[in-house]
Specification:
The complex is a heterodimer of chains A (321) and B (309).
Chain A (H helix, E strand, L loop, with lengths): L1 H6 L2 E12 L3 E12 L3 E5 L6 H8 L7 E6 L2 E2 L9 E4 L11 H11 L4 H14 L15 H13 L5 E5 L7 H16 L3 E5 L3 H7 L2 E6 L2 E7 H5 L4 E7 L6 H6 L3 E3 L2 E5 L3 H13 L3 E8 L3 H11 L3 H11 L1
Chain B lengths: L1 H14 L2 H18 L1 E4 L2 E4 L4 E4 L4 E2 L2 E2 L1 H37 L4 H5 L5 H35 L9 H23 L2 H27 L7 H13 L5 H10 L13 H19 L2 H25 L3
Antiparallel strand pairs in B: 1-2, 2-3, 4-5
Helix pairs in contact in B: 1-5, 2-3, 2-5, 3-5, 3-6, 3-7, 3-9, 5-6, 5-11, 6-7, 6-9, 6-11, 7-8, 7-10
The chains are: A alpha/beta (321), B mainly alpha (309).
């Protein structure tokens, strides 16, 4: 197994990750996730899907019940590779008695970064995140956004090969969010692998190469954004006039009418043409035909809708027994 | 590098607590108060001659005996300030240091660093000892200088009280850490540590009573149990005695009044207990206490290593 996994080119290759809290809370039920080297990967899912548990397992904070696979070519849970991994947890609490500089130095020392490099990296990262003038201020004087930026800097102090960020833009204003996005893209260009866990789907959409959707402790979808959304296109046809007379015909074509817009789900162009013909035959003017690619949010809602609730599944299992 | 970073951080955290500065003020006030006292043959002066009383306790021949002054400092001032008040302040001040590390949002960052949980645990434990280590050094250092410069009583062995105070605190801190790891509550850690300290003292008191009243030793079961338990739990009461032994000072028991039969009897009993305690090798009392401490720490570390955060 080790021989095989060492050959993999994935930065993160997690196989059959399972975690149960107590006897009843199945946080992860066999998660398989692969993240390529040098890509920005987004993990999304509803609350309670198991995203944070998965991230904590990656960072050895939580011990899985079962897991296979590798992170940066070493088995999951290997501590040595943490020296080249950066991590920003969700809802982090940094020691309030430290200054920004002291905090960066402390955590970098724990990551075995030499002193000179710690100094250089702290200066560079604080500058990059507009925090230089606060470097020697105690962090209990920082705003939430400043703490978040400091947290991101902390996760990058060891020049990691892989950086895992749990809700990195939480508490940031729009300007800072853009700053973080630019930073993430810069990290990608430097060859760093970025693993993002965020509930801000639009943020993920803007920067991620690939995403995975976690629902009820299982990966419901995984792939590039275009892969995940290619089968979920709809066409929106805007027209002028009253289409109520042909409503039943539109429904027969599986199109839906909403005011002056007819939506045709799927990417079957013949059906789109069929709807256009219907509209034109009814003497209605076509103003525009636009293909509508589903956003991550649409996709997530769709995936969640397809998932059977865990409680229901548990009941079914009991019935089977 | 990692252990040192954690120790430095722990000291910064302890410095951030009000108790740190309270303790520092107490040490300075006591040292300043000691400066206001001077010993002369046949008398003791207070506040640079404003008040004085005559006594021969500190005088041998026509000179003040440094070892007797040292006995007062070790048995009263050091024992009260560091072995009691100082330890209580340290327990209260540092109980939160482990729970603060274990808090959600803080522990995740630490556990994601390339070091084992056992290393993190022991480094943090050592870090919590820096509070008492710093204050013991300040207090003993200042009082050592006052004794030497003001009273001419240079007792280099007195400086060994610094590691002894840290040792005494570590016996109790291991319990605080175990409770903190299990409950993640500072208040519970403080309360149960103080209860344990009282229990240790109680066990030692019972054992001392058997020495004071040898006739009680006929209750074999109770006597054997008391003896056994005494050697299992940390010998917190012996630390002061060891400090005096290493400082080379006199015993204050020798200065107990013995003018009446009752007073003579009391002094004899106190001497008997002290002699019995002094007859036990220091390595034996410290060694058995360290075994207890190590056992508790391993238990706490095992629990810490197995936990999910």
């Amino acid at each position: 197994m080790v021989g095989i996994t060492e050959m993999t080119n994935w930065a993160v290759d997690m196989i059959d990750v399972r975690k149960t809290y107590g006897r009843t809370v199945h946080a992860l039920r066999g998660v398989n996730i692969q993240v390529g080297r040098g890509e920005i990967f987004g993990l999304l899912g509803p609350n309670g899907a198991g995203k944070t548990t998965l991230v904590k397992i990656m960072m050895t904070v939580v011990k899985p019940d079962r897991s296979y696979g590798t992170i940066l070519g070493r088995p999951l849970g290997h501590r040595g590779k943490l020296a080249v991994t950066g991590y920003l947890p969700e809802d982090h609490r940094f020691p309030p008695y430290l200054t920004g500089n002291q905090l960066l130095d402390y955590y970098a020392a724990l990551a075995k970064v030499p002193r000179a490099k710690r100094r250089d990296n702290a200066k560079r990262l604080l500058d990059q995140l507009d925090m230089t003038k606060w470097a020697n201020t105690r962090i209990d004087k920082y705003s939430k956004g400043m703490l978040q930026r400091l947290g991101i800097a902390q996760s990058l102090m060891n020049d990691p090969e892989l950086v895992v960020l749990d809700e990195p833009t939480d508490g940031l204003d729009p300007v800072s969010r853009r700053q973080v996005r630019e930073l993430l893209l810069e990290l990608k260009h430097r060859g760093m692998t970025v693993f993002l866990n965020s509930h801000l789907l639009s943020e993920l959409e803007m920067v991620c190469d690939r995403v995975a959707i976690l629902v009820d402790g299982l990966v419901a979808r995984q792939g590039t954004l275009s892969q995940l959304t290619e089968h979920t296109i709809e066409y929106r046809i805007q027209f002028d006039g009253d289409a109520s007379d042909i409503r039943s015909k539109l429904l027969a074509c599986r199109a839906t009418l909403d005011g002056h817009i007819v939506s045709v789900p799927g990417h079957d162009l013949s059906r789109v043409n069929e709807v256009i013909d219907l509209l034109r035959n009814a003497k209605l003017s076509i103003e525009s035909v636009q293909p509508h690619r589903f956003s991550l949010e649409d996709l997530l809602i769709e995936v969640m809708g397809q998932q059977e609730p865990v409680t229901a599944r548990a009941v079914n299992m009991e019935d089977d027994v | 590098m990692q252990i040192w970073a954690i120790i430095i951080d722990s000291f910064r955290e302890s410095r951030d607590r009000k108790m740190f500065w309270v303790m520092l003020c107490i040490s300075i006030i006591i040292s300043l108060t000691m400066i206001c006292v001077s010993f002369e043959p046949g008398r003791v002066n207070f506040f640079f001659g404003i008040s004085e009383f005559e006594t021969d306790i500190f005088t041998v021949g026509h000179q003040v005996r440094p070892e007797t002054i040292g006995a007062v400092v070790v048995d009263f001032i050091l024992d009260l300030m560091m072995n009691r008040i100082g330890i209580i302040i340290a327990i209260i001040a540092t109980a939160g240091m482990f729970t603060s590390m274990l808090r959600h949002g803080a522990i995740e960052v630490l556990l994601a660093k390339p070091m084992s949980r056992s290393k993190l645990f022991f480094a943090r434990y050592l870090g919590t000892l820096t509070f008492i280590g710093f204050h013991a050094t300040i207090f003993v250092g200042l009082t050592f200088l006052v004794m030497g410069l003001r009273w001419g009583a240079w007792l280099p062995g007195y400086l060994l009280a610094i590691p002894l105070i840290v040792l005494l605190y570590s016996y109790l801190q291991c319990i605080s850490v175990l409770i903190a790891v299990v409950t993640r509550s500072s208040v519970t850690a403080i309360m149960l540590t103080l209860v344990a300290w009282t229990a240790f003292g109680g066990v030692q008191l019972v054992d001392d009573l058997f020495t004071t009243f040898p006739q009680w030793q006929r209750y074999q079961t109770v006597y054997t149990t008391a003896r056994t338990v005494r050697w299992i739990v940390p010998n917190t009461a012996d630390i002061g005695l060891t400090a005096r032994k290493w400082a080379g000072t006199d015993s204050v028991v020798e200065f107990m009044p013995a003018s009446t039969d009752q007073e003579k009897s009391d002094r004899d009993m106190a001497m008997r207990v002290e002699t019995a305690r002094l007859n036990v090798p220091t390595m034996y009392t410290v060694g058995s206490s360290l075994i207890f401490e190590l056992f508790i720490l391993l238990l706490a570390m095992w629990r810490f290593s197995k936990q999910d955060f």
